[in-house]
Fold:
Amino acid sequence: APIEDLFAAFVDGRKRKGWLPDAKPSLRTSDPPLSVQFDWDGGSRVKVTLTRKGPAKTTVSVVHSGLPSAQEAARIKQMWRDRFVAVGAKVAA
Structure:
């Protein structure tokens, strides 16, 4: 997907709700269209980095820090995997 479309999927609350419906992140900073940082539910933080690989190809990296336990980190890791599938489908539609 184009980097601009993926960036918008993260920063636009209405678009984000379509693929990440249960989260209520609070935007901290952004560097359009390359990165965005959020405060997350429960006091953790999320940094998203986007790298353009071509006109319609983008690599997305997410670092979710400040999680309270290894068990929660494993749960969140799986959540992000699932949500990447959802965001890809939404952006491609």
Helices lie at 3-11, 13-19, 70-92. Residues 9 and 49 are 13 Å apart (CA to CA). DSSP finds three helices and four strands in the chain.
